[in-house]
Amino acid sequence: MANATQNRPLSPHLSIYKLTPTMVISIVHRITGGALYFGTLLVAWWLIAAAAGPSYFEFANGIFGSIIGRLILFGYTWALLHHMLGGLRHLVWDTGHGLDKHVSTKMAWLVLAGSISLTIIVWAIALIFS
């Protein structure tokens, strides 16, 4: 029996694969999904602070208005938009379209460019109206 475990074939490891844009965007899609859990807790905290009263709401807004708070909110905005566009990409794939290698690579680049562009647009609009 000891010999049977030594002669088993090894599974391919990630180090033998060349990273493609489709793979990277898929990994980032999973990471942004996890990050959205943390961001949703922040949104819930902000809503609870609003319900708790003006002084606590001022405290929460002070944190979100700081440089670190704004960076976190900017990252949350990007994660939300990136995850949404990645979900739309998967929805297209579920219809059987966009599965060709060159099309899926273009879609990966579009998801990245779209999420960055939309994040900048959302923040520009927010800063104009604030």
Description:
The structure is a single chain. The protein has 130 residues and is an all-alpha fold. It has one domain (21-128): 3 helical TM bundles of succinate and fumarate reductases (Up-down Bundle). It has helices spanning 2-6, 21-52, 54-65, 67-94, 101-128. Helix 2 (21-52) runs antiparallel to helix 3 (54-65), helix 2 (21-52) crosses helix 4 and helix 3 (54-65) packs across helix 4 (67-94). The chain is elongated, with a radius of gyration of 21 Å. 10% of the residues are buried.
What structural class results from the helix and strand content?
mainly alpha
Give the uncertain stretches in residue-range form: none
Shape: elongated
Q: Tell me the number of strands.
A: 0
C-alpha termini separation: 71 Å
Query: What is the CATH superfamily label?
Result: Fumarate reductase/succinate dehydrogenase, transmembrane subunit
The string of secondary-structure elements, in order, is: HHHHH
What would you say the CATH architecture is? Up-down Bundle
Q: Percent helix among the residues?
A: over 70%
Output the number of helix runs.
5
Radius of gyration: 21 Å
Number of domains: 1
- The CATH topology is 3 helical TM bundles of succinate and fumarate reductases
